[in-house]
Amino acid sequence: MSYNEKMALTDEHIRALEKQAEAIRETIINMLVAAGSGHTAGPLGMADIFTAFYFHVLNHRPEQPEWEERDRLILSNGHICPVRYAAMAHAGYFPVNECLTLRKFGSRLQGHPERLRLPGMETTSGPLGEGLSQAAGVAYAARMDGRACRVYCLMSDGEQEEGNTWEAAMFAGKNKLSNLTAVMDRNNIQIDGMTEDVMPLEPLAEKYRAFNWHVLEVNGNDINAFIAAVDEAKAIHEKPTLIIAHTIPGKGVPEIEFDYHWHGKPPTAEEGKRFLKEIRTMGGKLPHEYA
Amino acid sequence: MLNKNAKLSAKVFADDIEKAPTRDGFGKGTVEAGRADPRIVVLCADLAESTRAEWFQKEFPERFIEMGVAEQNMATVAAGMALAGKIPFTASYAAFNPGRNYEQIRTTIALNNVSVKICGMHAGVSVGPDGATHQMLEDIGLMRMLPNMIVLTPGDAEEARKAVIAATATDGPVYIRFGRAATPVFTTPESPFRIGKALLLWESENPKIAILSTGSLSHTALVAARNLSEKGIETLVFHLPTVKPLDGEAVIDAAKRTGAVVTIEEHQAAGGFGSAVAEFLAEEHPVPLKRLGIQDQFGQSGSPEELLSHYGLDAMHIEEAVRAFVAK
Predict the structure, then answer these.
(1) Cα–Cα distance for residue pair A170/A185, rounded to 1 Å
(2) Angstrom distances, CA of residue A169 to CA of A218, A220, A240, B172
(3) Is residue A4 domain-resident?
């Protein structure tokens, strides 16, 4: 399916997207093993959402990354960039094998993403809590100029602990930035443990509603449900929308799913082989690797 | 004697010289630049009147963005607007912009290399009665260390206006430092201003010492130089409204012609303008050097005059310091 087809999703399309997400997960494992450092759980958990964005939701041109009318995808929690790099590569922004340069000297694929190094990156991020305000700034400017593009911000749940996030939420709510859709990766883990132990965040939906946002909650590993939520967000004209996407950290590799220890470390070569097998056999449910 | 080419005010040494705070130059400059370029927007963190952002707001209400007391958000929203093609100016007190939002500036503006103009108001001890919390003395240091960042510290309201307009014509991040107190407007619309260029204010024959100054203290330095000249101590006075990129040519010229340099700034002597000059001269043309500024202290409440005198930055103390340095 081409990236700019906007047809109603059939079961066949959804299966094609799911297969694409698996290919992206495999690339993530390969690139993290090659890098020897980086984050595993978040990128695997977000593979379905990035697939939905790059292969269905975004109005974009991989061969023309700075196309003026493109939708903007701002990644706030820059540390999950392996999934964005993998999705961009599979979508045609650059060769998939360039993914193996992740975090290496001279690579365009920095450990945390840099706009000036990789066309289509939109901004530089990593320090948490800064993406939502940048996305709000882009959305505000786009509205001033009467541009039709939509602005998306992907952020983590952990970075809801940053004050800057709430300053941005207040600003977007005040200004009714309905061209802005934020997606929160609600995977419940952060470096030091479970979010509700480290610093309780709930009730997140009520908090954002109190800041004048429209809030939706979906299974972020269900591509079809996620795309439906994005479609609903587009239909809300009075306020910005937050999609709280419940994802499973480490999704696709059952032995690391839900385990916060995998937030910030890469698989070893040995683990990488095993993880790839788990992705290819759907966690052992299939007798043979499909690939 | 005064450098004629600087085209300074005819009243430069007169008691009734016009006085205005450099923040007025921000107000005038943004309005002027805003008329010429529709991409210019002004973001302000609940200080529209005292930063003079209000002047832009009155003429361009749809291009003025009230951020509330949220300087971190102001910096990052500005970065986003710059990514979308705007030229945002962010206005708050220097203690908060860039004091509060330094990391946001570092990552989303400087590393991102976007065209945001960060305007720090009420810098230095001359803020006066508000006291130490609001008297920013570390902003030049913070900002000049950032790659991609240009740092401007205009000497008066007229030069501040020019600095704002020059900043809009420069692609990329710029920090501009402004003061609260009304200070002498010693330059004129005809005085040359270019980013990265020093302005020679005073030049004597056989000068014994070069005074390099930045910000509104450059007028004070000029008064001190005239007084010293009357007492037989001849100097050169350079005003450097750009701290980064430093005008190395002028600094070397000053050092070579005199063999001794005094720097003056309303900022910590460590890390600021004097440090920039010291770093440069230590590598390129080492000469004896004295940095006048705040000596590893915080400010306090008082009138601007009381405070500048207390911290050794009025004309009398500068004169004494230069004399003592020459005598060494």
Answers:
(1) 20
(2) 20, 21, 9, 27
(3) no
* Nearest residue to A182 (alpha-carbon basis) of A212, A143, A224, A147: A212
Q: Mark whether B32 is an active-site residue.
A: no
Question: Is residue A208 a contact partner of residue A236, using CB atoms and an 8 Å limit?
Answer: no
3-class secondary structure, B231: coil
Give a yes or no: residue A150 inside a domain.
Answer: yes
In angstroms, what separates the C-alpha of B98 from chain A's closest C-alpha? 15
- Each residue's pLDDT tens digit in chain B (328 positions)? 999 999 999 999 999 999 999 999 999 999 999 999 999 999 999 999 999 999 999 999 999 999 999 999 999 999 999 999 999 999 999 999 999 999 999 999 999 999 999 999 999 999 999 999 999 999 999 999 999 999 999 999 999 999 999 999 999 999 999 999 999 999 999 999 999 999 999 999 999 999 999 999 999 999 999 999 999 999 999 999 999 999 999 999 999 999 999 999 999 999 999 999 999 999 999 999 999 999 999 999 999 999 999 999 999 999 999 999 999 8
Residue numbers of the domain that contains A96 = 12-280
Domain count, chain A: 1
Closest CA to B80 of B54, B41, B109: B109
Could B70 and A134 be called an inter-chain contact, meaning their C-beta atoms sit closer than 8 Å? no
Please tell me if the domain spanning B4-16+192-327 has the same topology as the one spanning B19-184: yes
**Candidates B73, B86, B116, B148, partner chain A, best to mutate (most A CBs within 10 A):** B73
- pLDDT tens readout for residues A126-158: 999 999 999 999 999 999 999 999 999 999 999
The verdict on a CB contact (< 8 Å) between A140 and B103 is: no
Question: From the list A124, A140, A144, which residue is nearest B108 (CB)?
Answer: A124
Cβ-Cβ contacts under 8 Å, A171 against chain B = 67-68, 70, 73, 77
A251 domain-assigned: yes
The CATH number fitting domain B19-184, selected from 3.40.50.970, 3.30.565.10, 3.40.1790.10, 3.90.1310.10: 3.40.50.970
What number is the ipTM of this complex?
A: 0.93
Domain boundaries, chain B: 4-16+192-327, 19-184
Give, in order, the Cα–Cα distances in Å from B132 to each of A142, B124, B142, B274.
Answer: 40, 9, 18, 21
Residue A263 belongs to a domain? yes
Paired strand residues for B42? B64, B89
Q: What is the CATH number of the domain that holds A104?
A: 3.40.50.970
Q: What is the pTM of this model?
A: 0.95
Nearest by CB to residue A124, choosing from B63, B78, B107, is B107
**Are the beta carbons of B70 and A125 separated by less than 8 Å?**
no
Rounded-to-10 torsion of CA A50, A54, A58, A60 = 140
* Range B4-16+192-327 classified under CATH 2.60.40.420: no
